Amino acid sequence: MCSSTQKYYLRGEHYDWTRDPRGLEKIFHAARARCFRGLYRGPILDLGCGTGLITRQLHCSVAVDLNAWNLRRLRHLESDPVQAAAEALPFCPGVFQQVVCTEVLEHVDNPELVLRQILSVLRPGGRLYGSVPHRHPIWRLRRILSVTHPHSEPFHHSYSRRQLRRMLQPFANVRIRYANLGMILAFTADN
Known about the structure:
The model has no long low-confidence stretch (mean pLDDT about 80). This protein has about 190 residues and is of the alpha/beta class. The two termini are about 30 Å apart. The chain has one domain (about 5-190): Rossmann fold, CATH 3.40.50.150. The protein has helices at about 5-10, 25-35, 70, 110-120, 135-145, 160-165; strands at about 45, 60-65, 80-85, 95-100, 120-135, 170-180, 185-190.
């Protein structure tokens, strides 16, 4: 059974993060994508890939998203697209060396469940790379200032550094840093 949030991302979102953003949002997303260039130890999973903003920066093995519309925009990339919910990944345990999960955890009803799924598909010694919105005053103004962001998108959470560290407790060697003028918390965590 899908939650209302999942229903939105499954059917309602038709926003191409690689082509639609303009103005400040274009700058924000370009900077976010640069944070994840150069990950080449495979196999790599891009979880919540959307239309491939980060996937394009990676030599990615598999790109997963709930939304089939998003996945159709990946057909020219070398990644294998898989339609699946982040809460129920259809992969064998320990199959990925790296998982990239950027700007996803804030959109799910149970981020801890998603993190457990990530931990299960990571190889021993594998690494999670991710980001979430930081509690920054600009996020409160996003819906007002945005000229391209879909206003129908369900509310998503922003996190303090302490909240993120608590969520990542099952992982080892957690490193969190401010990125994109402090608007996001970028992190790495090991299995």
